[in-house]
Amino acid sequence: MMAERLKKNRTRLIVLGILAVLFVSASQGMSTEDWVITVMRGLAVGAITFLVAAGFSLILGLMDVLNLAHGEMFMLGAYIGWTVYVRPDTFVDALTPLLLLAAGLMLMPVLGVWLGQRPLPGKVNQIWPWLGLAAALALLIYALRQWPLAMWNPGVFAESPATFSLAMSQGTMQLPAAAVATGLSPWLLLMLLGLGSTLLAAALVGMRLRGQTAVSAPYLSKSPLILAGGLALAGVFIFALNDGLTAWLYRLNHTALFALAIVVATAVGGLLGGLIESTLIRPLYKRPIYQIMLTLGISFITIELVRAIWGRPEFTMPKPEMFAGTGAGCGREVVSIVERLANQCATIFLFNGRIRTYNEIFIILMGLIVLVGVWLLLQRTRLGMIIRAGVQDSQMVEALGINVRRVFTLVFSLGVALAALGGVLAAPSIGLSNGMGGQFLLLALIALAIGGLTSYPGAAAGAVLVGLLQQFIIKYGQLGINLPFLAEPFKPSPPLVPASTVLFMVIILLLLPNGLFGRDE
What we know:
Blueprint: H1 2-8, H2 10-28, H3 32-63, H4 70-86, H5 88-106, H6 108-116, H7 122-146, H8 161-170, H9 186-209, H10 223-240, H11 242-251, H12 254-281, H13 288-310, H14 337-342, E1 347-350, E2 353-356, H15 357-380, H16 382-392, H17 394-399, H18 404-430, H19 436-451, H20 456-479, H21 496-511
Antiparallel strand pairs: 1-2
Helix pairs in contact: 3-15, 3-18, 3-19, 3-20, 4-5, 4-12, 4-13, 4-18, 4-19, 5-9, 5-10, 5-11, 6-9, 7-9, 12-18, 15-16, 15-18, 19-20, 19-21, 20-21
C-alpha cells in the first residue's frame, strides 16, 4: 500500500523535494538576520493571501462559482474596518439604517409564504413587484439622504480619510461634531426606513413568485420574525443611545477598538456574501457565464462605491496601541522578546533580525488561527461533513434531505467573511487603496493554481510559497545573486516580483496540472 502511494505521488514528492532544496539554497546566500526577516515577511504575505484564497477555494469547490468580486470583498473589508476604527461616529450613525434594512430583508421567508398563498391575478402579479421595488427605493433613498450621518469629505484634504488617520496616529484625534438631520424628524425617518425595507423585501419576493399559482402553506418558522424584530429593536436602541455610544467608542482603547473593527468587518462581509448568494447568484447556478459577468459587475460597482465614499487616494490605517509602542522599553539594548511584547513594542529582535510585531507576528498568528479553525470546521463538524460531501456530489446530499441551498449560502458567506477579515488585517500593514482587491485576488488565484484550485491545504501551501518567493526575490533585488559568467551580482528588478510568481505557477502546472495538492478529476 505504501509503495503504491509513493509511486502514485512520485512526481509530487519530487517537486516538493526540489522546492525544499531551492529554499535551503536561497537561504544560504543570506545572513541569519536577512533570512529571518525575509521568511517572516513571506509568511505574513502568505497569511493574507491565504485568507483570500481559502474563501475563494471554498466557494469554487462547493458551488462551482468563480467569484471575481472576491478581491473587492477583501478591499471592502479593509475600508469598513478603517471606518469602525478611525471614525466610529460614522459607524454608529450608519448602524441604525443598516439594521432596519437587514430586519426588512429577514422578513422575506415570511412574506414568501404569505404572498405565495395569495397570488394576484393576471398582469397585476407581473407589474406590482416592479412598482413596489420603485416605491421602496424611493422611500429608502429619500430617508437615507436626510439621515444624520457624520462623514468625511474625500475632496477636501483637511477632512479626508488620510487626515483623520494621521490625527489618530499622532494622538490628536478629537470627537467630530454630531450630524444633524435635515428636513423630517429622525423618528419619522426611522419609520420610513422600516417601511421601505419591508416593501423592498416584499418586492423581491414578488419577483421570485411571478407567474406562480397558489401554493400550499408550508411550515412557517418563527425564527425570521424573531430575528427581524430583534434587529429592528437593536436599530432603535442604538439610535436612542447614539451620542453616548459614540463618545464611549472614542474613549475606548485603540486595541479594543481595532478588535471591534475586525469583528464588524468580518460580520459585514459574511452578511454581504449571504445576501449576494441568495439574491443574485442563486438564480444563475445553471448559467456559469452569467455568474462570471455578474460577479465582475459587482467588483466594478464595489470599486466605484469605495471611490465615491472614501475617495481615490491611498491612505494608511494606524496600528493598534498593542503593536505601536516605542520608547525606553523598546530600545536596541532590550533583547528580551517577552519584555518587548509586554511593552507593546512595534518591533522585536529574532536572531538579530528586527521584525514588526504586527506585520510579521500578529498577521501570521491570525492566519494560523483561521487555518486551524476552518480545518476543524471542515473535518470535525457536521456542517463540514456536508460541505465536503457537497463538493463530491451535491445532488446526493440534497437527496438525503439536506437543504443544499442553505449550505451554499453559508459557504458563500464564510468565503466572503474570510476575504473581509483578510482586508481589515492587511489595512494597517499595507494601507488602503482602490487596487488592493485586484492585487491580492491575483495572488490568491496564483496560489490556488499552485496548490490546487479546490484544495483547502493547497490554498495554504500555495499562499505560503507565493509569499516566500516574492520576498526572496525582493531581498535578492537588494543583495544580488552571484551567477556564473557575470562580473557583477544580478539584482532582480521590481517587475520580476510578480513575474516570478507567474513563472513559478507555469512550472508547477507543467509538472502537476492539478497543482501540488489538487485532486485528479
